[in-house]
Amino acid sequence: MTQPQLTSTQDLPAPPRVVIITGMSGAGRRTAAHAMEDLGWFVVDNLPPSLLPQLIETVRRGGQDRLAVGLDVRSREMFDQLPRVLAQLEAQGIRKEICFLEASDEAIVRRQESVRRPLPLQGGGSITQAVAKERRMMSGLRADADVVIDTSNTNVHQLSYRIGHIYGSGDDQNTRFLIMSFGFKNGVPVDADMVFDVRFLPNPHWVPHLRPQTGLASEVSDYVLGQPGASEFLDLLQKLIATVGPGYKREGKMQATIAIGCTGGKHRSTALSEEFAARLRAGGVQASVMHRDLGRE
């Protein structure tokens, strides 16, 4: 009788790239997981941390090379399991990345009230007490995260776009840059790696025929880019990225967010973000653009 042939470890495919999606309740973990699935990742949500090594091995044997796992560490027992499990993966040489989603207290409270569901740690207390407790519990995990996305001022479509920018570019090991325009009146993006203020340029808001248009219109863009200092600013920004980009790559930082802000995020920051991303792409750098506050004015 012929004995079944056992598959040796050497015959198995390489371990998959593993991204752990976690963060604050109400910050968009499920939206991020759905976006990863749309990008072709093998996605498992609501997995207890203790089952992660088994899942990775199963996915590896199935020949999948990209695995995204939504970890819900809302209970103390499950949260306490996570450091041990992550250490086990590291000892096995399995590459894992942590994508941490967060939002302001105000945003989480607003979202929870709209869906009329209590937070996991709320119990008989208030929503704000539950948020504070969860934020303390998750602080160490946030500090260890490879990617932190603040969704306070982000809708589901913008979050999906950011996930696509970070995790939809295959295995290219060069740093990818997201150029984000924003308005200071709506708050500074706390998850940006660099923030630049372009309010030193004249505001098209005060030009009557430009006011209703945005920085995406050629007339507004030409006006902004033609102002003294605009081209020099972009030249300096390009030199900065040429300096820090290789350093990011050496340190394993796969994505970086450059935020460019004006007063409302409608004219100056939008035009300059589009132009800067175009310059980066022309130089062979992966760059995409997101206009956080366009349409909010």
Secondary-structure topology with pairs:
Elements (H helix, E strand, L loop, with lengths): L16 E7 L5 H10 L3 E3 L7 H10 L4 E5 L5 H16 L4 E7 L2 H11 L11 H18 L2 E4 L5 H12 L8 E8 L10 E4 L20 H8 L4 H21 L4 E8 L5 H15 L4 E5 L6
Parallel strand pairs: 1-3, 1-4, 2-3, 4-5, 6-8, 6-9, 7-8
Helix pairs in contact: 1-6, 4-5, 7-9, 8-9
Task: Spell out the key features of this protein.
four-stranded parallel sheet, alpha/beta, about 300 residues, five-stranded parallel sheet
User: What radius of gyration results from the CA coordinates?
Assistant: 22 Å
Counting DSSP E segments of at least 2 residues, the number of strands comes to 9
Percent of residues in helices comes to 40-55%
Alpha plus pi helix count:
9
Strand % is: 15-25%
Shape: globular
The chain-level structural class is: alpha/beta
Widest beta sheet: strand line-up? 2-3-1-4-5
Order of helices and strands: EHEHEHEHHEHEEHHEHE
What is the end-to-end distance? 76 Å
For the residues shown, what is the average pLDDT?
A: 88
Low-confidence stretches: 1-9
Profile the largest sheet: 5 strands, parallel
Structural summary, described in words:
- This protein has nine helices and nine strands.
- It has 297 residues and is an alpha/beta fold.
- The protein has a five-stranded parallel β-sheet, with helices on both faces. Strands 7-8-6-9 form a four-stranded parallel β-sheet, sandwiched between helices.
- It is globular.
- It starts with 16 loop residues before the first strand and ends in a 6-residue tail after the last strand.
- Mean pLDDT is 88; it is low at 1-9.
